[in-house]
Design a protein that fits this description.
alpha+beta, Heat-Labile Enterotoxin, Chain A, five-stranded mixed β-sheet, globular
């Protein structure tokens, strides 16, 4: 088992909600839509079909949910750890940094304020879709060999919840400051960082894999 550091980008929330997430954990959209969560349905939703839809058809109408958008009832949580994209023509590998990809999602492609949650999840180097504890490493082409246009996003997909003990901190990224930093030629930085008092550092354990940056 590997402890994989990841980032979850979230937009459309305020600071109070961001602070609350540190205390309650990051939940999937299904749990946010249906609370309390029907635990007996969890194994029925952690399927290959739903994982494929989460990765490639996230906004599509889902016939299994009365043609409501799939994302409203997804049991999965997208995070990113960064990835390497190979350009065979230029004979080079290009790193896609995790924080850039997470920030792109959180700000809806540089159009709103966003929050970055720094977390860790557990991966095992194999598919484990039915096991809630383990995340799926969709970026790993030796495991998920089918083509996906979203593979460069470096996605690591958690399930149901990332508990507070695995959420280290949250960064607040106001879009105005982000764009000003870029215009000045500076490396962008968050306006505020809040550490989570409930966080349990993964370095106290073993096999920690860091982000690509």
């Amino acid at each position: 088992m590997i402890i994989q550091k990841v980032i979850k980008g979230i937009g459309g929330i305020d600071q109070d909600i961001a602070d609350r997430i540190l205390q309650t954990g990051i939940t999937c959209r299904w749990w946010q839509e249906v609370d309390p969560l029907p635990q007996h349905e969890v194994p029925l939703r952690l399927t290959d079909r739903n994982l494929t839809w989460h990765q490639n058809r996230y906004d599509d109408p889902d016939p299994q949910e009365g043609n409501r958008p799939f994302n409203l009832r997804t049991p999965f949580i997208s995070t990113t750890a960064g990835t390497v994209e190979r350009n065979t023509f230029l004979k080079t590998n290009m790193i896609q940094p995790a924080w850039v990809e997470a920030l792109r999602f959180a700000t809806d492609v540089w159009s709103r304020d966003g929050y970055l949650f720094y977390c860790y999840v557990f991966i095992i180097g194999k598919k484990s879709i039915g096991h809630q504890l383990f995340a799926e490493e969709l970026r790993e082409l030796n495991i998920y060999t089918g083509f996906s246009p979203f593979q460069p996003e470096g996605e690591i997909t958690a399930k149901i919840i990332i508990p507070p003990a695995q959420v280290e901190k949250v960064e607040y990224w106001p879009i105005d400051k982000l764009l000003d930093d870029i215009k000045r030629g500076e490396v962008p930085s968050p306006a505020r960082t809040v550490n989570n008092s409930l966080f349990l550092p993964p370095e106290d354990y073993t096999n920690v894999r860091d982000l690509l940056a």
